[in-house]
Amino acid sequence: MEEVNDKVSFPEEENKILEYWDEIKAFETSVKKSEGRPVFTFYDGPPFATGMPHYGHILAGTIKDTVTRFAHQTGHYVERRWGWDCHGLPVEYEIEQSLGIKGRDDILAMGIDKYNAECRAIVMRYSHDWKRVVRRLARWIDMENDYKTLQPSYMESVWWVFNELFKKGLVYRGFKVMPYSTACGTGLSNFEANLNYKEVSDPSVTVTLPLVDEPEVQFLAWTTTPWTLPSNLGLCVNPNMDYARFREVASGKVYIAAVSRIPTLYKKPEEYEILKTMKGTELAGIKYIPLFPYFKELGERENGAFRVLVDDYVTEDSGTGVVHQAPAFGEDDLRVCLKAGVVRKGEQPACPIDANGRFTDQVGEFAGLYIKDADKKIQADLKKRERLFSAGSIVHSYPFCWRSETPLIYRTIPSWFVKVEEIKAKIIECNTQTSWVPAFVQEKRFANWLADARDWAVSRDRFWGTPMPLWCSEDFEEVVCIGSVEQLFELSGVRVEDLHRESIDHITIPSKQGKGVLKRVEQVFDCWFESGSMPYAQQHYPFENKEKFEGGFPADFIAEGLDQTRGWFYTLMVLSTALFDKPAFKNLICNGLVLAEDGKKMSKRLKNYPDPEVVVSEHGADALRLYLINSPAVRAEPLKFSEAGVKQVVKDVFLPWYNAYRFFYQAVMRYQKATGTQFVSIGKDHFVASSNIFDQWVQASCASLLQFVTAEMHAYKLYTVVPRLVRFIEELTNWYVRLNRSRLKGEGGPEDAVTAISVLFEVLLTLSKAMGPFTPFFAELLYRNLRRLLPEGGEDSVHYCMFPEPSLNAMDPRMETKIARMQKVILQGRLVRDKVNVPLRVPLPWVEIIHSDSEYLADINECRAYIESELNVREVRTRVDAGGVVKLSAVADMKLLGQRLGKAVKGLPALIKALDDETLRAALKDGFLQVGEHKLTTDEVKIGRELAVAPEKGVRTESYEEVLLLVNTEVPPELAADGIVRDLNGRVMKLRKKAGMNVLDKVEIFLGSPCKQLHTIVSERQDILREGNGAVLPIEHLPSYASIVIREKDKMRVGAKDEAVEIVIARAQLHAPTAPQNVQTALAQLDLATTLSTIEANGGKLVVEAIELSLGVDLFASVEDALAKGGAAAQ
Q1: Does residue 1129 carry a pLDDT above 60?
Q2: 544-574, pLDDT tens digit by residue?
Q3: Is 46 part of the annotated catalytic residue set?
Q4: What is the pLDDT of residues 1101-1122, one digit of tens each?
Q5: Active-site choice (102, 198, 383, 604)
Q6: Which of 456, 568, 657, 735 is catalytic?
Q7: What is the pTM for the complete model shown?
Q8: What is the maximal distance between C-alpha atoms in the chain?
Q9: Active-site residue 85, yes or no?
């Protein structure tokens, strides 16, 4: 084996492993080795390369890498291919910001070809940074043979997808009110609008609209979008609500509003008086004087504008009960106005704003103003003309553009739609065929979204994207949808190599209906349509890879963040259902969002999170990976990212794991030195036969761990798998290694040592393979060294190994139960010590475990020696609770009971407290109990135990599960003295560690203190000290020539006082107390172990500086030996 140093830098070791992987082409080789195995299909959602990877990407990437590595290690061929999202608003917005482009006209003036060339130039701006970060995080994925959504092959498959939908009658053109980004100049889909809601303050305005026939009576209408008032074409009331004419006392003016809303308009009831009430139906058709004259002609035609309409969407929740109708800017507004004939079918409603949200010349004095900037000017104008009843502000949740971070508006625009509503039932059925982790995202969030799904607007009035393959006549009555480059050539006679707008916009197709030529519509696809087409387009299906695609569809696995519920997950499901009546995937892991430590969204501007690359360089990629996949985020809950959390993973997991590995190395070296033979594991099929219960337990735990991980990983439950793996590492390091140190050191003889070392070897080797998917670097670090002990040498990389099968010989659930019971006793006993403030170094007389199950007590008795050692008690007692020994008591869990029973919980606590022993024992057996009319579980009623008779002085009790634990906390003087010696041993150990010494370094220890009691205690207990670090001698015996390694002064508790102490550790050497100084100086230069071997070979003699010395006469191996022979080391 290579040497395992006492200190380790995980980031440095990871970088060495990266170089090793590059050298052996580890990823490529692993894929090559797996060819011919069953295929495991994985789809990777494409990110944009216009920004740097953040923790959300790293989290999702780690989940993907973990699952695909596991799939590979369980005998599958897993193609892992990277993809890039290259089109759409993120790219266009970057270009428009950098070039100062203000709107559509600037782009057309610049030229689409030049604009798209600028977009193309930045698409891969950060691709090298992505590659660096992905590599550093040990994510194995092919980034060389990547797919890009801008590739002609990808775009052609997108055309094919759309054409298939078109042929099925699932595509139509229509006017629809849609979320619209004025910054980007395009409509968005409903799911895009739901990606980015913010709390904002908007105007809250109530305006007056006089009746044409009674100008002295005015409707009151409310809005939070004053900029839509110039486009007002109607008012809407609820036909079934109560409305009233009322007079404002102060002004004498008469208004109409909903009865229930009038009190909200005034501070006091006496400020108004009701004149007349009526139903909403009675107001229908009443004409009013418009706020502005801009669309007066629409009021003059049949079924014209500026009248009262009725619809039950109007509610009493807010406003006045009279809703202003601007059909160009509201979905309900358009629906109501279409039904009433105010807007005619196929007609564009009055819409006086341009593509970038600026008013046009249709509204004279506001022309050129951005709509939000016009709010105040519109209010001022209304106030001047006495048409403003009130103005204030309202804070509410409002959608923002997910890319430009500007407020969205809703506006009527012509769009091409996919008929999602028509196939909604099929989509919902396909969803039930998939498995999501966690399930609630599928069953609630996604299912609710599907239930309310609307037709999908897939067109965007933009430039950098896959152009829609629709060639239409001017009246849109003749429409040809193109499904391939070849079909376009056949119909147009033009063959193209690129499919972007600048390459195909000029192409025309002759009309078959005598309508001249058909021209391509100007729109491009929503980039979500492109990413939803990814399963087909990445393979250039159906033009290439037909058999390969169809053999691996649906995908076995996908994973992304919770925000993709209404994004990529949705579009994948819609398109696969429309195409094949299948879901696009079988299994999905949905992760939560990663937030800054303060719970806010991570922000580059605010710099409220640490740079991921800095975190990795400080703590290592494995630590970051494990922190992320062992967090609430794998349960789709938010994670408040903390670098301290990553550091804690290093401290709690990797350092103990490394130390166990290092201790194993030291044990092997010690064994080989002691026996003169190479260590070879005595395990057969990774199982070591042993009579030691801890050997049996750790192997059983390892086997059940493998069984659990395999089952849960096949169910994609990372949130159960990772905690179990971490717990096993903790149990291996903190229980097995720690409790078997003496055996591993060889103190039980070479046969026992080789057994213990073999067990630890097999477990560490198995664990390195099992942890490969989760902590790929550290697993490799261990495996590369451990494999040197394998007779056959092993694979070149742990990632070529299959996931280990659990050893059937090792499986032993009873042994796991036995040790778990022992561990619980120890942990509860330590808890009692903490409560009474008696440190673990102080021995206690006894503990007693009382239980009704004799098998439980037999388990404890078998582990008696370990409990005595771990709790530092002189005796472990057990007693059967056969009745009369323990009495039970019960307390209501008010939180659980309150959640279930509500107010009915009243009176239950007293009834529960009064339950007798017999009832409670029956409840423990049955799992429930009847209290009055309520059947309660033993979770809702906490049943405790205490001694039937009061315990003797100093005995503390602890009740847990079905156990009553008694701990005698009275410390007699002799045990207190043992505790002092144990404390001294611990201090020496810490000093050795502080001095950088290893366990093989021989030392001599000296103690100085004015406390005579301390010296007496130490002198009387040298046998205990020798079992630890060695004898401790008074400091006056410290030789003047001693080679001092470390010395330290401190305070130490002796009895009731803190006494001054000085501890000196000197390197062990030979002593010749009566020899001249030059002899002693020469002896100090000699290696003790080597020289003692020489002395033994020379019959106990050693010649130094021409003087012959005899061991045990005038030459001694320690100061203690010299003192024992009546001599003294030279002072």
Answers
A1: no
A2: 999 999 999 999 999 999 989 888 999 999 9
A3: yes
A4: 999 999 999 999 999 999 999 9
A5: 604
A6: 568
A7: 0.81
A8: 135
A9: yes
